[in-house]
Design goal:
The chain is of the alpha/beta class. It contains ten helices and twelve strands. The strands form three sheets. It has a five-stranded mixed sheet with strand order 4-1-5-12-6, sandwiched between helices.
Amino acid sequence: MKKLIALALAIVMVLSAVSMFASCQKEEDNLSAAYDKIAEGLEFDDSNCEEFVVAMSPDFAPMEFVDLAKSDDDKYVGFDVLLAKYLAKELNKKLVIKPMSFDAVQAAVQAGTVDAGISGFSWTADRAENYEITDWYEAGDNETEQVLITTKDNAGKFTTAESLAGKKVGAQGASLQEILVKEQLVSKGAEISLYTDLGLAVEALKTGKIDALAVAHGNGEAYISQNVDSLDWAGFDFVVDDLYKNNVVLLQKGNTELLAAVNAALAKAKANGLYDTWYETCEIYSQIKTADQLGYDDDGNKITE
């Protein structure tokens, strides 16, 4: 009898584990369903097409990040990946994604070893001087809101520049956040720490090597949602000039032919209202917002009733 009871309990535990795994798998699939449907719609026969090589730094959810459940170039996902796929289709070229650090993306575009850099770039005077910069494309609140995240213990404590005097503030090197920290916080006594990889910067924040980290608002949402027990908002918003409030694609200086073609494609995407759908979908995928909150079914269709 004892053996039968033990066997029955074991079966119950196995079935429970299987059910839990299936539930988690369904939730994961649901998060990516809408994204996968959009990505599939951007596919076309590119077997005889020239390559369109795009560099990006896939550490910047929801703009570009990695889904380890996928393989090859499919594992790079996010708003900028959808944009790259869209541009490749419009240009009738085969997309090739080259992952690299944020500053390396800019160097590769400048050297002409890639065709474009698509990695959440904002306009800056330095970039305008050294690259062909496309017209703006809009990605939610990714660039319009620039903020600080911090540890759970320091949530809401750094609401002014003066409150950060003597504190270490992290930022990604060669980014808009570096510019903002230097302009608005270092002048008030904060110390800046630069990182080539945002994942490393987040670990530095969690381990106390820095007190706060400058990020785009959407990026901050992603990191907090993935670290709900350890990270939170600092309570500080940067003042962001209108020039910085949208994203651009970087092209090699002098490549005006490609610039014109990309700008035409961007204008078409804007006219067709694609950006908001892409951004909302990528927020789901990076778990900033859940599929339940936004009302998507298992096939990626938005529920309207």
